[in-house]
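Re: the 347-residue chain
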Amino acid sequence: MKALQYVKVGSAPEIREVPTPEPGPGQVRLKVTAAGACHSDSFVMGLSEDDYAAFGYPLPMTLGHEGAGIVDALGEGVAGVSVGDAVAVYGPWGCGRCYQCAQGKENYCERAGELGITPPGLGRDGSMAEYMLIDDPRFLVPLGDLDPVKNVALTDAGLTPYHAIRGSLGKLVPGSTAVVIGTGGLGHVAIQILRALTPATVIALDVSDEKLALASEVGAHHAFLSNDDAPDEIARAIGRPTVTAVFDFVAIQPTIDLGARLSGVESDVVLVGVGAGKTDVGMLARPYDATVRAPYWGSRPELMDVLQLARTGQVSVETETFSLDEAPEAYRRLHEGSLRGRAVIVP
C-alpha cells in the first residue's frame, strides 16, 4: 500500500510503498477514508536531529494523527465494532486503566510515557496511508453519516479547541470577551465553538487578512490584525483594555506577549499552539487571579460532543483536499501558511 512517511530528519515526507498491515489480537484495521495534516506534524518535522531523538519517534514513520475510515478487518478477540463501520480515530492514546483514562481523558494518561504509548502519526504509524492499525477499538468513535473528508479534522482541530474552551466556560458569561489568536486550522473552529457554547463577544486576531476574513465568516464579532495596535483596537471595540480569556493557537513569543497585555483580573490565557514562547507567572507578574493554562488535545467524550456539534450544523471545518500522492504538497502549503483552513488527504 501507499503511505506518506517521514523518513529522514530535516527532509520532506515521502510517498512510499509499505506492506499492508495485518491486525493482531485486539487490533482493528481501517481502510482510511480521510486523514488530516496538522501543524503538530510540521513541528515534529522541523526538529533538529538531537531534539527529534529526544522524542524517540521511529523512522520511517507514517504521518497523520487525524484519521477516519471504514473498519476493514478485526484481530482476534475484538468486540464492539464491526466490519463496515464508519469511524473517527481518537488520537491521544493512553493505557486505558489509570484514573485519567478511566474518565475518558486518555490525553492525560498517567502512564503513557512509562509504557511508551504514543499517538498514531506521532510516534507510531498514522493515518496517511491506505490502511492503518488501531490498537484497541475504544480509540474509535462512530462517525455515522458525517462526511469523513469534511469532518476528520475535528478529531484534533475541533477537539483541541473544544477542550481548551471548556476549561474557561465558567468565565465566559454574558458581557465577557474571548480573543482567539491565530484563526487558521484550529482557530476558525474555536470561533464557532465559542459562538455555539457561550454568549461571549469573540475577537479574532491574525497576521493574515485572508484568515481574518474567514474568522468573520464563521462568526467572529470583530477581527483585527495581530500586531502592536491590537490592544487599542480591542479596547475601542469593547470599551475596556482587558479581556476575559485569550486562546492562543500560535504561542510564539509575540503572541504570548500580546496575550499578557490583554490579561486582566481573573483573565484566562490559554496556550494551545506548539510555539516555543514563554511567559511569567506569579503574584507580581500577573493581575490578581489571572491564569495561564496549556491544555493538550481532549477526551474521548469531548470528541463525541464535537462530532455532535457537527451533526447539528454548529461547527464545520474549512478544508482543502489533496490525494495521497499530493500529500507532500499539502505539508509544504501548511508550512508556508498558505492554507485557508485545514488540509485533508483522501487516499
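The first strand starts at residue 2 and ends at 6.
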